[in-house]
């Protein structure tokens, strides 16, 4: 898997994934609501990709919390 890393060694990388996820979801919401006529379907895709990044970052965080 390309997204496997240890959050104990790279804690900022875990936070970056969470920040990226929030930004992508926010862009998706903006594209869906404000620019719905032109970019509605792209907004839905952004929300889905952001959700995927969010799930990955929460899984990584859970693994770190279990190790401690």
Topology order in helix (H) and strand (E) letters: HH
Work out the strand percent: under 5%
Low-pLDDT stretches are: none
End-to-end gap: 24 Å
Largest sheet report: none
Percent in helix: over 70%
- The average pLDDT is 81
Number of domains: 1
Briefly note the structural class of the backbone: mainly alpha
Count of DSSP helices?
2
Shape: elongated
Work out the oligomeric state of the chains in this entry. Answer: single chain
Radius of gyration: 14 Å
Report the strand count: 0
Q: In words, what does this structure look like?
A:
The protein has 2 helices and no strands. The two termini are 24 Å apart. It has one domain (20-67). 18% of the residues are buried. It is elongated, with a radius of gyration of 14 Å. The protein has helices at residues 11-33, 36-67. The longest helix is centred in the C-terminal third of the chain and has 32 residues, at 36-67. With 68 residues, the protein is an all-alpha fold.
Question: Can you give me a brief rundown of this structure?
Answer:
The chain has 68 residues and is mainly alpha-helical.
Q: Could you list some keywords that capture this structure?
A:
mainly alpha
Record the SSE blueprint.
Blueprint: H1 11-33, H2 36-67
Helix pairs in contact: 1-2
